Amino acid sequence: MNPSGESTSVQTHWGIPLLRRRFPDADHVNPQLVELFQTHRAANDRSGGPVYASRDDVLMRYGNEAPVQRLFSFISDSIHEVAGALNAPIWQQTSSRKMQLSIVGAWFQIQNGRGFHEVHSHGNCSWCGVYYVQADPAPVRHAHPNLGASNGMTRFYGPALDWIGGAYMDAGNLYLQSTTFDSAPDPGTLVVFPSHLKHAALPYEGERDRIIVSFNAQVHGDQGDAAFDYSFS
User: Domain span at residue 184?
Assistant: First the structure.
């Protein structure tokens, strides 16, 4: 007990949410997505480099294609789940009675030959995600003589990475050394994460191309987003 008589406890605040889940229709949909994206690349890629990224207009180009519709229906449900779980008490303070989801950009990437995507975060959205369409099985990826277990991983960087830059470290704050989380490129898996979270696609080399779908999403109330009074009175 402290002098005021109140009980004390260690508290942890400001955790970062991340949803990782399996698409039930992946075995049926993924081969169709592979064919669609490879055909698109063959008609549009002039570089032949280790990484090909489409424009962020996949839904405008292919939104009427059945496999794309099925995937993004699953993606939309997943974003609503995580955003609703975190925001529901706050949404109740707004004048809105319905939250509307908008995918403001969606694109695919095809990666091989040790291609990678450097550390970055996304703007113009509150939620982002990556869906793994194709990659080598884990035992094959991990057997790479140089890349090993990191082959093709999506690496997420927590805020502690910035906190420890040049900071004093001793045995009392070693927990800050846990700065990254690696998401395996398991085909059929979706990862949804906050747009501010830094991440990177680590180098990949395999028998199959690493193919992913990425997207940016916004959520707005039908009567506006404001939930708080920002005055100082």
Answer: 19-221
